[in-house]
């Protein structure tokens, strides 16, 4: 069983608990079961953000296990608004497949817990006062998710947030990754079917995710990624193949620019 299988099974096992509005609790639980805790919980997602080192405000550069943060004022469980913010866990990297305490994702994993993209989550958050994307960190304050990526050596002590240096870039800092290079294919375990377990294949881009229908389209999109997408190679496609590819590209939804961080 893959780590994604295990995380999905755990979230499913928490039903009928409703995670909606409890993003900090969901993230803390993922750290507890699939990572490590260093101290107690935070009062809110925004409080955890203040205790975290933001590596970048570009979600495309986030690795699996990264923690994405948003600012925003929301209604609390006792009424009234507070600057609670929002937080979600990146399951595959790149901000295209994150686990969020949301009812509006493209794939439900539990009650009030769904898979969504950073772009779509940012669009939803923007409807709230102060709502904006703040960036991603390798930790949730003092805590971290380790099951999705090799854990770096812990920096000593539990009294302060864990400090992890940003990874060394593979290209000059001023060179931005193109949107084309952000497209990729991911396999997601499907455990909801009555038939034998299988993987659902998705085509991901900076603006969303689309389910891949059939092996023919899967191979076509693999050719597209291997023979183009800004990688300096050439590939010849027939007219009907270009039509299929265009359908997937336009099916990714509206691209939502990520606001600059603080």
Short description:
This protein is an alpha+beta fold.
Give a quick set of tags describing it.
single chain, about 260 residues, alpha+beta, endopeptidase fold (from Nostoc punctiforme), 2 domains, seven-stranded antiparallel beta sheet, three-stranded antiparallel beta sheet, 6 helices, 14 strands
Biggest sheet: strands side by side, in what order?
2-10-3-6-7-9-8
Radius of gyration: 19 Å
Number of strands: 14
Number of helices: 6
Structural class: alpha+beta
CATH class category of the largest domain: Alpha Beta
Which residue ranges are poorly predicted, with pLDDT under 50 across at least 5 consecutive positions?
150-181, 253-262
The CATH topology of the largest domain comes to endopeptidase fold (from Nostoc punctiforme)
**Which range does the strand content fall in?**
15-25%
CATH architecture of the largest domain: Alpha-Beta Complex
In helices, the fraction of residues equals 10-25%
Could you spell the SSE succession in H and E letters? HHEHEEEEEEEEHEEEEEHH
First and last CA, distance: 39 Å
The largest pleated sheet is described as: 7 strands, antiparallel
Number of domain modules: 2
Described by the principal axes of the CA atoms, the overall outline is globular
Average of pLDDT: 77
């Amino acid at each position: 069983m893959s780590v994604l299988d295990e995380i999905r099974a755990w979230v499913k096992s928490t039903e009928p608990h409703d995670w909606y509005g409890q993003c900090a609790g969901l993230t803390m639980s993922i750290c507890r079961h699939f990572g490590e805790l260093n101290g107690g919980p935070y009062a809110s997602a925004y409080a955890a953000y203040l205790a975290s080192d933001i590596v970048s405000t570009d979600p495309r550069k986030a690795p699996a296990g990264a923690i994405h943060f948003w600012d925003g004022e929301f209604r609390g469980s006792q009424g009234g608004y507070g600057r609670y913010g929002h937080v979600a866990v990146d399951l595959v990297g790149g901000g295209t497949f994150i686990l969020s305490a949301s009812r509006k994702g493209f794939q439900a994993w539990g009650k009030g817990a769904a898979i969504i993209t950073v772009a779509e989550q940012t669009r939803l958050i923007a409807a709230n006062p102060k709502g904006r994307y703040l960036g991603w960190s390798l930790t949730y304050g003092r805590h971290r998710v380790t099951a999705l990526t090799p854990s770096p050596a812990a920096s000593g002590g539990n009294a302060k947030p864990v400090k992890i240096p940003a990874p060394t870039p593979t290209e000059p800092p001023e060179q931005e990754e193109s949107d084309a290079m952000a497209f990729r294919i991911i396999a997601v375990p499907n455990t909801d079917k009555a038939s034998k377990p299988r993987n659902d294949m998705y085509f991901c881009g900076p603006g969303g995710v689309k389910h891949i229908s059939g092996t023919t389209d899967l191979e076509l999109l693999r050719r597209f990624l291997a023979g183009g997408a800004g990688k300096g190679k050439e590939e010849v496609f027939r007219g009907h193949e270009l039509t299929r590819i265009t359908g997937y590209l336009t099916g990714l939804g509206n691209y939502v620019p990520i606001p600059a961080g603080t």
